[in-house]
Request: fold
Amino acid sequence: TPAPSKADVFGYVSLYDDGINKLDNSGMKVYVDGAEDIFSATTDSEGNFTIKDVTLGTYGIVYEKEGYGTYKIYNVKLEKAGESVSIEKIPSLGKLSTTKVTSLSSRIEGEDVMLTYDTDPAGNSNAPRYIRYFFDDEAGVTSSTYKHHTVVYEIKDSPHERWFSTENLKDLGFKSGETVYVKVCGDSFWSNDYDEPSFGIRLFPNLNMTSADEVSFVIP
Reply:
């Protein structure tokens, strides 16, 4: 009788809209990336899934559902035949952002830089919107070519203004007198972001790419 060479992979997801509202956890496809054969499962209403009889090896695990940005986990190791492997990280995954950034401008006041932008829909106290900033020292900053990205910010008005001091920008790796380019994109509260080793960057699958052109400023 040949020795067993397979193992199960199980885990859990928690699904949201592009804000903080909880949704039905069912219907997300979870599959093994890097295997010769196809191994996949679909989450139930509780968010649970089990991928059965996966060939031993080291893989990525991919999470997909219509309306959601693709999320990935890397270096999941199946080393012992017949033993179930748990995905210890329980991802909270959000839907694609519905927030468009329709305008963006910058101005200098003293030692500070003011960024002003409008969003569609506009944020308010009952329905905040979520955005993320990308900075670079070269023109053409995007969500995949950047020197620094911020966390997701919640905004409750439009137009929205945010100050960045010279010290803030130095903390991001820039210096006085340097020209900085910035782009602002709508994102979801649960951004589904992950590190992509093949590119050496962090990816943000839920960004709304309908966004105003980048602007630039010279750090005081």
